[in-house]
Design goal:
single chain, Acyl-CoA Binding Protein, 2-enoyl-CoA Hydratase, Chain A, domain 1, 2 domains, 15 helices, about 10% strand, binds coenzyme A
Length: about 400
């Protein structure tokens, strides 16, 4: 066994032990907080040790971080040294949760364990209504169905949920599954303190044998397919924007039916800064939603909007205080999901049908422009600057 494989194995074993047997003491009141009682939390904890499959290091780190956040609050311990790999990974994961409240962390902890249990075919920790998504588990997403709502959570909090090539494929698949499952509403959200930091810029550094042109062509086809999945999605789709959103996670928002944002969320599309051009049909939806001059500020001049500004411009439906974001949004969504499913889906499809053809044409044009941009010197230099700046830190 190679040294790297040995380290990985030790890491896996130690991490799993640490996340299944938390050593911190904690105190809860008996009252229900965000629907999660002490009993729910205890149940989720005990279900964790009954999992048969190892959910992988990323998920275990997430479980650890949520547990710490739920029982202790935001990370306030000193950063471990670079060579202390395990504690550094745990610290990073906990730190990445930022200032999310203990109540939200408890809720996310129970939801996460529930989805893992459900994916193994058992009954979920918190809600008997939860079901597995056909037993499919994803590397970079958490997908669960509960109370007639399928939730797709981007789950790379240590990288601010930046979307890798594999993640694009997984999201497309998760959307296809959600389109066919029995849920009424589909929700898109992010794990940790970010909603999503957009396209993972390291996607540009993996140049295949066919060179830059081939990379750009393959990237373009993937992007086309990704955006199509949003254009054609047949049920109400809701973005629950739990933190800052960048790039493609913002541009596709014009195709969501509702966008709920926490007050500290921001919306940023730094395309010209990166030598790129708009995608996600934003070159059509943004001017239509907010008018040309405001759309230009975002799409041409990289203006970052606060949640309240995005709401004023119509990109966001409603903004909620950080402290009550999860409670308010989820209680509202649970009520919406009780509406007649066919009426909701058919009405959404009717509204979309007015511009579906246009959206597909816009997607094609945007993909063509971006495929050219990705091979440009401007883009190459911008991506290199990002990673050079990181390496100097
Ligand atoms: N692609 C690749 N890696 C990304 C990323 C992205 N889009 N966004 C974040 N990351 C990585 C960082 O490199 C860092 O990795 P490291 O811990 O190995 O160094 C990690 O995620 C955490 O990000 P960091 O920059 O330390 O956090 P921050 O809170 O200071 O800043 C962002 C967060 C999102 C503002 C910053 O990372 C950023 O500007 N990312 C690029 C966003 C972007 O341009 N997206 C494409 C839009 S088209």
């Amino acid at each position: 066994m190679t040294f790297a494989a040995q380290i990985s194995l030790i890491f896996t074993r130690r991490l799993w032990r640490l996340s299944s047997v938390p050593t911190v003491s904690f105190h809860f009141t008996k009252t229900s907080m965000m629907g999660v009682t002490q009993e729910d939390f205890e149940k989720a904890k005990s279900k964790l040790s009954s999992l048969k499959k190892d959910p992988g290091n990323d998920v275990k780190l997430k479980i650890y971080a949520l547990f710490k956040q739920a029982t202790h609050g935001p990370c306030d311990t000193p950063k471990p040294g670079m060579l202390d790999f395990i504690n550094k990974a745990k610290w990073d994961s906990w730190k990445s949760l930022g200032s999310i409240t203990q109540e939200s962390a408890r809720q996310e902890y129970c939801d996460l364990i529930g989805s893992l249990v459900a994916a193994e075919g058992g009954s979920a920790a918190q809600a008997p209504a939860q079901s597995a998504t056909n037993g499919r588990t994803y590397d970079s997403l958490l997908v669960s169905t509960q109370d007639d709502i399928t939730t797709i959570t981007l789950n790379r909090p240590a990288k601010k949920n930046a979307i890798t090539t594999q993640m694009y494929e997984e999201i497309i698949e998760a959307l296809q599954q959600a389109a066919q499952d029995s849920s009424v509403v589909t929700v898109f959200t992010g794990a940790g303190d970010f909603y999503c930091s957009g396209n993972d810029l390291s996607n540009f550094t993996k140049i295949p044998e066919g060179g830059l042109e081939q990379m750009a062509k393959a990237g373009g086809e993937l992007l086309r397919k990704y955006v199509r999945a949003f254009i054609d999605f047949p049920k109400p789709l809701v973005a629950v924007v739990n933190g800052p959103a960048v790039g493609i996670s913002v541009t596709v928002m014009g195709m969501f039916d509702l966008v709920y944002a926490t007050e500290s969320a921001t919306f940023h599309t730094p395309f010209s800064q990166l030598g790129q051009s708009p995608e996600g049909c934003s070159s059509y939806t943004f001017p239509r939603i907010m008018g040309n001059s405001k759309a230009n500020e975002m799409l041409l001049f990289n203006k970052k909007l606060t949640a309240f500004q995005a709401c004023q411009l119509g990109l966001v439906t409603e903004v909620f205080p950080d402290s009550s974001f999860h409670t308010e949004v989820w209680s509202r969504l649970k009520n919406y999901a009780k509406l007649p499913p066919n009426s909701l889906a058919l009405s959404k499809q009717l509204i979309r049908s007015m511009e579906k053809e246009r959206l597909h044409a816009v997607n094609d044009a945007e993909v063509e422009r971006l495929t050219e941009r990705w091979t440009s010197e401007e883009c190459f230099n911008a991506v290199m600057s990002f990673f050079q700046a990181k390496s100097k830190l």
